[in-house]
Design goal:
391 residues, mainly beta, Lipocalin, 2 domains, 10-stranded antiparallel beta barrel, globular
Length: 391
């Protein structure tokens, strides 16, 4: 989060979110409003003004001619995919596995994002994945973050753009403990087919070795669907259903402490609505939030997913002016209450952050965010959120 958390939020704030990656990218700087947004993600209803808009009057809109928000529109639909995966691309080995599957890609968040759900079968059985594509209107670039059903760990973002009908996204990564670059390319694009190729480079981009090659042919356009209803949950783990109560549409009343950890007692209110959709066969959900208050108009997209290997929930978020996800928050649910802890920097000091959410009834819930600057000995609540299910 940034200094605007403790001051005016109508000033331009530089976004500085990174991901631990398909690479392992370390987040060197922390946006203090990310804490609020992560909380919103947890409860699906928090607020991160600096990420949601740069100037209260809306003057931060992109002024360049090209609007890359539609570059991935060709991808919408249901596709058959034939995948060729090289098992160890940077070795002399040429072992390859081939998979056949289905890819469904739909626009979400008013077209500012794309959700890709993949399932395929091969020699090692059934495999599923989820990608979230986000557009940054400031840089005119897209990012792609990926989840694998085998380990449910979010990869860091590939970031890039389209030129002459060809999309190229890049990321720094480690492979077998060595530094590499990853390049993802969308090419040979027609209305009914396209190709996706992922390559590695261990010499600074001088040479590239293909690691993943998928040819997609259109099966059908997107069927009419209600994402709010979503698919039936697939998790057999009771913890994997901890947030089923949160699906649907909620009216939200939020109160925010304007200057936390300063002794201030000045609060601000926000009225909003959040719609929570189940995705990826119930392994995850998306929350789309919009709200208004004294500080202006706020929007947020939240992704939450369950890791059956660790029995933990993960949460991450994006705002309209930041086209990447951040470092995920992680937590667990016990006795009907979910609590998540994180460590962040505020005013040059490391503090602890606690997110809590609990169900009150089928039609109401509450959540809180709190900070501690003494190693968890004392906590100061700085967000209180009350949710009422909308008819």
């Amino acid at each position: 989060m940034t200094d605007v958390y403790c001051g005016s939020i109508d000033q331009t704030v530089a976004a500085k979110m990174t991901n631990g990656a398909r690479p392992n990218r370390n987040q060197k700087t922390t946006d203090r409003f990310r804490l609020v947004a992560l909380f919103l993600l947890m409860c699906t209803l928090c607020w991160q003004p600096d990420r949601a808009f740069s100037l209260a009057d809306g003057s931060d809109q992109a002024t360049t001619a090209h609007d890359g928000q539609h570059d991935f529109d060709f991808n919408n639909g249901v596709w058959h995919t034939h995948i060729r995966r090289v098992l160890d691309p940077l070795s002399a080995s040429s072992d390859v596995v081939e998979l056949e599957g289905t890819v469904t890609i739909r626009p979400v968040w008013g077209g500012r994002a794309k959700l890709e759900e993949i399932e395929a079968d091969g020699p090692k059985g059934h495999w599923e994945g989820l990608s979230l594509f986000l557009y940054n209107p400031q840089s005119h670039q897209w990012s792609q973050s990926f989840l694998n059903s085998k380990n449910a760990v979010l990869t860091g973002s590939l970031v890039g753009e389209f030129h002459d009908g060809r999309g190229e996204l890049y990321q720094h990564d480690t492979y077998h403990d060595k530094s590499i670059f990853v390049r993802a390319v969308w090419s040979e694009i027609t209305p009914n087919s396209h190709r996706y190729t992922e390559s590695f480079s261990n010499d600074g981009g001088k040479t590239w070795v293909t690691s993943f090659d998928a040819h997609k042919t259109r099966e059908k356009d997107l069927p009419p669907s209600d994402m709010a209803a979503g698919a039936e949950p697939m998790s057999a783990d009771p913890d994997g259903h901890a947030f089923d109560f949160d699906l649907g549409t909620w009216h939200t009343q939020s109160s925010r402490l304007m200057h936390p950890l300063t002794g201030s007692t000045t609060w601000a209110d926000l009225e909003g609505q959040t719609v929570v959709h189940r995705v990826w066969g119930g392994r995850a959900n998306l929350a789309e939030y919009v709200g208004d208050g004294p500080a202006g108009h706020v929007q947020l997209l939240a992704l939450r997913w369950f890791n059956p290997n660790t029995h933990e929930w993960n949460l991450d978020f994006a705002t309209p002016n930041v086209g990447t996800l951040g470092e995920p928050g992680v937590g667990q649910c016990k006795d009907g209450r979910c609590e998540f802890y994180d460590q962040e920097e505020i005013n040059g000091r490391q503090i602890w952050v606690r997110f809590s959410i609990w169900k009150i009834s089928d039609d109401s819930a509450q959540s809180e965010q709190a900070f501690s600057d003494d190693g968890g000995k004392t906590w100061e609540v700085n967000w209180i959120n009350k949710y009422t299910r909308a008819n």
